[in-house]
């Protein structure tokens, strides 16, 4: 037997929790499903200084505040890794890895994105042995050591600045000749005496001794010269991939796997909405995930009312 709801929200990051909040506040019967702890990637962020209302707040603390606000309206919250989503008339049928089945006329997808891997030799072999995708999680293991950050966007520089609090030095290896991060982050990074920069560098291999990372090999894109940089840890931030595998049969993805929506977060399947980092867009920040969550939650309520009127 399936558990039935009015709205199922898959993903409990800032956008998903906001969508669930708006739907539950409108007196809909809401289930929030997530495969991990609420807050999503906020839990991996040390300091957030660009979310209105807080001069600075820890990521896990903001996650908790959002969760506490949501739970005032008493949605169900369950852990589950969604495997498939199918359509049965107006109902969306969701199956999880623990063989649970959930049904609702409305599905809100807020599964976010995950870190892209380099795909170079040594990356998978030394994952957890010096290769990391989360400085907040692993920085403490590299106190007073030389570490490397690969990437040049906001995440790379934010995490590099965080690492510099503990590491002996942080070398940012970037395949271009300038950073893509916000100017304020660049200014902070260039002013940090612990941070160094290697430009026009294409990472070719992560090298280790069988137990731990010892260096990276990279190619100078200007000269073609192969070089090696000793390092105790490699933190990789080279983009993100949408977490949309369970939804590929619904016909709502673009060629890159992102979910396509309109301004009301509607997909082309009636009753399915998507928001946050799972959408194709330029800005991936907590503030706009929350904004999209409120739009999706209200759009879900409107859809539910229209469905009732038709029936």
Commentary on this structure:
- The chain has 311 residues and is of the alpha/beta class.
- The chain folds into 2 domains: 3-115 and 240-310, FAD/NAD(P)-binding domain; 131-236, FAD/NAD(P)-binding domain.
- The chain contains 6 helices and 19 strands.
- It has helices at 14-25, 59-71, 135-138, 154-163, 183-191, 286-310, and strands at 3-4, 7-10, 30-34, 76-79, 82-88, 91-96, 101-104, 106-109, 113-115, 131-132, 146-150, 169-173, 195-198, 201-208, 213-220, 226-230, 233-236, 240-242, 272-274.
- The strands form 5 sheets. The protein has a 5-stranded parallel beta sheet, covered by helices on one side.
- Strand 14 and strand 15 (213-220) form a beta hairpin.
- The longest helix is centred in the last third of the chain and has 25 residues, at 286-310.
- It is elongated and about 70 Å long.
- The two termini are 24 Å apart.
- The relative contact order is 0.17.
Shape: elongated
- Give the CATH class of the largest domain: Alpha Beta
Count of helix runs: 6
List low-pLDDT spans: none
Helix proportion of residues, in percent? 10-25%
Instruction: List the domain count as a whole number.
Output: 2
SSE order, one letter for each helix or strand: EEHEHEEEEEEEHEHEHEEEEEEEH
Looking across the biggest beta sheet, what order are the strands in? 4-3-2-8-19
Q: What is the CATH architecture descriptor of the largest domain?
A: 3-Layer(bba) Sandwich
InterPro entries: FAD/NAD-bd_sf, FAD/NAD-binding_dom, Ferredoxin-NADP_redctase_2, Pyr_nucl-diS_OxRdtase_2_AS, Thioredox_Rdtase
GO molecular function: thioredoxin-disulfide reductase (NADPH) activity
Family: Belongs to the class-II pyridine nucleotide-disulfide oxidoreductase family.
Pfam families: Pyr_redox_2
